Amino acid sequence: MTPSAYAWTEGETLAQHFESHGVSRRDFVKFCSEIAVALGLGIAAGPRIARALESVKRPSVIWLQLQECTGCVESVLRTADPTIGDLLLDVVSLDYNHTLMASAGDAVERARQSAMAANKGKYILVVTGSIPTKEDGIYTVIGGRTAEDLLREAADGAAAILAVGACAHWGSVQAARPNPTGAVGVRDIIKNRPIVNIAGCPPIGDVITATVVHYLTFGRLPAVDREGRPLFAYGKRIHDQCTRRAHFDAGQFVESFDDESARKGWCLYSVGCKGPATFSPCPIFQWNTRTSWPIGAGHPCIGCTEPHFWDTMTPFYGRLPNVGGFAVEQRVDTIGAALAVGAAAGVAAHAAATVFTQIRRRKATHQVPETGTETENDDG
Amino acid sequence: MTARGESATGSRRPGLFGLGRGLSRERGNFTWVYLWGAPLRAMHWVAAACIVVLIVTGFYIGRPYFMTSGEASAHYLMGRVRFTHFTAAAVLVMTGIVRVYWLFAGNRFERFPALFPVTPKNLRRTVRTATAYLTFRPEKQSSMVGHEPLQQYAYTILYLMTIVTVVTGFTMYGQSNPGGIIFRAFAWVPPLLGGLQVVRLVHHVLAWGYIIFAVLHVYFTLRSDYVDRVGRVSSIITGGRYVSTDETYEDYDISKVPAHPWPTPEHPDPKKDA
Q: What is this model's ipTM?
């Protein structure tokens, strides 16, 4: 499925476009109902979404790929069995995406410029990748221009921005300590445009599809949490939706990846699962057309939808984070126990010394009556 | 009051190796002074019990040290442990509310100024008492009826620790119901500390702080009974203790309180007339 082979022509509605693709009316309505449920609107909202979507004219989407690994684009578009959601994302991202575009060089940069000029104030900007800020941003330069420069220019005429993936959200692995390139997320650069963060490394394709559908249906971005993530997807912790939760409550835990508990599919809490600290719809949406998901496959959650997870969620196989620059090999319980034992030992030593000095002192004062002298200050 | 029955060394040694001698009654005149009100004492013991429960259950939640076997549906171990932890936390918060009220309603040993001994005189007392402890010279300690400044600092730090522990605890507790009152009330905490995992770490580190505090607290309290003969242990049970009327105290004019074992209409408790 190459974008150029299925161009959504100007003036054609989405319904007409899907029809020309051989997508049946039944499949389209089914897709709209699924999206309605995913957005938390209830299945009754499906027809409304269908009505809104089928009359949508081709929206212009500029997709900037900045300092990133292209994993998000792969996650979204390279599924083995393309769904209508993939198709929708594919058709709306036609104007500029340098990984998918057949041409290269000045031609695509000109195409981007003309698309932005033609749809100024109306296009959707999708950003994957972080923005390096150190050394004037030389760590990512595309067509002779820095990532920050490209982002600012594209954001200026955007109606809304979808920051897709952990990189565009907050910087991801590039922004992990010590963050050599000064990588930041879109929201750290762009302050005056509506931004929605589709968190994750990479995010689930369905979440991006549902967000785009929400925008196309209602003309605005979905409600977001404090992190700017859509609430319909990131409103609950993995821990509270987890298929292994019953084992957590029962007190049944995997202690190592090859033990009997692991074979039985018990809770991965003790091997460092970050589900209790991570807001993501992974247990519900799952991955690769609902084939599986990390915890379902027996691996603890690493918390990739949370900001700074490379720093705060590591070690990935331990419960508590490491303390940066301090007692690198030590865990908090080792330090805590050492201090507690130290305090007990100190107390014991102090008590022994106190008893010793007190007994000596009292022996000394008890000598007094034997010499025949009474003192007022006899404390023994 | 009577003097001790014997005074010559070696004639009779009460207790193991003569250590009991240190616990026998002081010679001289004494009066009973009332220090800690019933709400404060109740708060102390309820909070102590809660903290023990919270530490035991908290370490289980942090690192489950028991496991169940068989079908998950037949067990609810972690569920019960978490329920106990959260209930004890709620009770601890309740004692905290009582303590805050008592900062205003209590007597002068319990009120706000006692929490923050920051005057130069108090700071000198703190240094003096710490030096006395470190050099094993109890006679150099400041002579107080209520808390010594050093002791009070320990309790103030404990209260501050408790506030941080409660805030981080409620932050984690609120995560199970995003958008709920508790979640929203503590939404500022994870960004402040740098994420939920850091919140978890702070909460866990402070648990060790309580253990270290408990070791020091029990030691210094028992030690003061043994060395200073001040009856600190009984004062947190009965509310008051006997103090020698032959000595002078830096925080209390003992001469104004005639030797009397119990507050009576003629001799009301010292918070009113001292």
A: 0.79
